[in-house]
Amino acid sequence: MKLRLHISKNEDLKDYSRGQYFRFAVIDLDRSKTYPANFVCMLPKKPTINDTPHNIFSKIYGKESIKVAKQLIKKALNSENDLEIKNALTERLNILEPKKPLPVKCVRCGNSFTPLRMRYRKQKVCSECKQKMYSNQ
Predict the structure, then answer these.
(1) What is the 3-state secondary structure (H, E, C) of the chain?
(2) What percent of the chain has pLDDT over 90?
(3) How far apart are CA 37 and CA 85, in angstroms?
(4) pLDDT digit string (tens) for 60-86?
(5) Does the pTM exceed 0.70?
(6) What radius of gyration, in Å, describes the C-alpha atoms of the chain?
(7) In this structure, are residues 92 and 79 in contact, taking their beta carbons and an 8 Å threshold?
(8) Which of 16, 4, 76 minimizes the C-alpha distance to 41?
């Protein structure tokens, strides 16, 4: 399978809030050379949510869907010349790559640690110092 992205640019559509919208279609060049005949599926922004397929792309490619999506976007970035399309492709690539939590320094000991996810406040004390605080009481 020779997979590529076919990017179409739709401008000033009534049903979209922004002035322009890009559609990313996954095509297979082994099927045919022209676009409608070699259509496989549309490339979603997020192929899987919590490792469960929720669209046709992830059902076709399974566990390899994120890897295939990254490869398709990187190929399209190398071959594309339009700046607006390149920006849309980099946005899609950033969505696919997981974000790493930033390390934070502990207020008490100064060691860096990755904070736990809290709803309304930031964690400032590492778990070791927190255990020391509560064990001394």
Answers:
(1) CCEEEEEEEEECCCCCCCCEEEEEEEEECCCCCCCHHHEEEECCCCCEECCEECCHHHHHHHHHHHHHHHHHHHHHHHHCCCHHHHHHHHHHHHHHCCCCCCCEECCCCCCEECCCCCCCCCCCCCHHHHHHHHHHC
(2) 19
(3) 23
(4) 888 888 889 999 999 999 998 989 889
(5) no
(6) 22
(7) no
(8) 4
